[in-house]
Amino acid sequence: MTSDAQSQEVTDGFHLVIDALKLNGIDTIFGLPGIPITDLTRKAQAAGMRVISFRHEQNAGNAAAIAGFMTQKPGICLTVSAPGFLNGLTALANATTNCFPMILVSGSSEREIVDLQQGDYEEMDQLAIAKPLAKAAFRVLHAADIGVGIARAIRAAVSGRPGGVYLDLPAKLFAQTMDAEAGKKSLIKVVDPAPRQIPAQDAVQRALELLNSAKRPLILLGKGAAYAQADADIRALIERTGIPYLPMAMAKGLLPDTHEQSAAAARSYVLPAADVVMLVGARLNWLLSHGKGKTWGGKEHKDWGGQKFIQIDISPQEMDSNVRIDAPLVGDIGSCVSALLAGIGSNWARPPADWLSAIAERKNKNLAKMAETLARDPTPMTYHSALAVVRDIIKANPDAILVNEGANALDFTRSIVDMYKPRKRLDVGTWGIMGIGMGFSIAAAVVSGQPVIAIEGDSAFGFSGMEVETICRYNLPVCVVIFNNNGVYRGTDINPIGGPDVAPTVFVKGARYDKLMEAFGGVGAHATTPAELRRAMEEAIRSKKPTLINAVIDETAGTESGRITSLNPKSAKQN
Ligand code: OXT
Ligand code: ADP
Ligand code: MG
Which of 138, 193, 462, 534 has a C-alpha 20 to 30 A away from that of 418? Predict the structure, then answer.
């Protein structure tokens, strides 16, 4: 060894992974330690990274995914091999489905043994399993390639349509050593990880012409629009055109829900009545009834309603996925919206007055009906009377982040609780997945430092409930409110044959979830009236202490599957 060619110091796989992440501005890891990554978590903490350690990898994965959505930087989830990896995989698949950028980094067992299927400790061909569920999947075998591996994972997660990326790091890699100077040189600081994608001028012109020809235009904002962080331009586009808009669940608050152009309260009127619809970061999937059928004014299930569509999306393949897109506008939302704004100028004709007044009429009727329902104070407490409180609390604390899951607990919250700022509502997303609650809440608190309010169905909470210990351990300002109606959808089902087992949708009646939080030193509260709920929520916001409120809801108040009852097959045979 010649002393001038190599420095005295060595580095190893552990340090190279940490250095590569830090070099790229990644300062937080969500994970769960164990072989072979225990030392990685320790050394990351020693290197000044925030390491948030969970009780189950799925929750760490969900935390990473939503951190990615909130920050446009890939969230990192770190797991052990086989079972830990599999526990994280649901979150990875969910991230890919929702276009959230995250990287699932899993330790794995010895390649030589795994590939010969000789029965290694936690043996599994993780790369092969992750591939179909991730946007991209990579494995690093040599310490000198760690820099490239992490750079590729970052680019894959955030460029183009964001998504989940899998990075496989075999146990042997971590202990590999190399010269420290050479190691440093092998790392890559990714330049421009999510390059802007500028739309073609003719595509912009086509979109503007179609929009201009509309008699009853409508803009649909999806969570891609929230992700894009082009908030001011999106607002300018809506206000300068005067076009009514409809926010998808996680786009609520992009403009305040109280905005006069919001058509949210007239949803079932505007979708079939609109003639030109501009989708901004929203897919025409099941949540939008695939852009056709009765929701859109079509005669039958699959009939076209007659609308023309403009679609802004970074993914060219999204176009025509369900119906014809007359004006595809492919590019990043920031660039597309600013190109539209440039074309619109300052004297764009507002939509015809009869369209605006027809919407206002429906909207005001629905708002008045809702106000009447919310003013009631029935006993027992209902979704509505409880949510009237949550609505006030969010209004008074517009920076708070609202996490939401359940069926009725989800659907009522979405339509009752107004959001005032972008990226403040985080929910079950494209899959309608239960189990995101505590992972999303923890990440939201860690990433933003703002108070978090999680409105949870009692079933939904159960999927990630053990993480209340994590919330207490890191002393996070999270207030979990469990809408406890004794079960999935409602607590009133009975066993049809009268045996000792309760019905499959029913839980222990009168459960006291608040005691769970108290077990770990947090604040537990039990609320049976809106006044008690209000007091407990206000105190949680004021004190910033981890809090869990067991809000008792009338067990007869919900409907099967909430607002999506029509998707739930029912047996045609009577008994
Ligand atoms: O226009 P109309 O008149 O139609 O009125 C609409 C709006 O105009 C109006 N509106 C307003 N009025 C007044 N004021 C305001 N501000 C306002 N805003 C709107 O209100 C209505 C409704 O508006 P909305 O919601 O916009 O319109 P609509 O038609 O509902 O929209 C359609 C959809 C599809 C876009 C919307 O419904 C939607 O986003 N739905 C999402 C549904 C969803 O994802 N559900 C979760 C999945 S359900 C099921 O799968 C569950 N599981 C199974 C399971 C899952 N999911 N995951 C895993 C891992 N395992 C199993 C389980 C286990 S849910 C569940 C647990 C349930 O039990 P819980 O105890 O947790 O919960 P509870 O039900 O509370 O007991
Ligand atoms: P929602 O559920 O709110 O309707 P979806 O998840 O269906 O939203 O759609 C989000 C869309 O936004 C995806 O098709 C995705 O490709 C797109 N998208 C995400 N980020 C951007 C971006 N920065 N620019 C353009 N499109 C984006
Ligand atoms: Mg319930």
Answer: 462
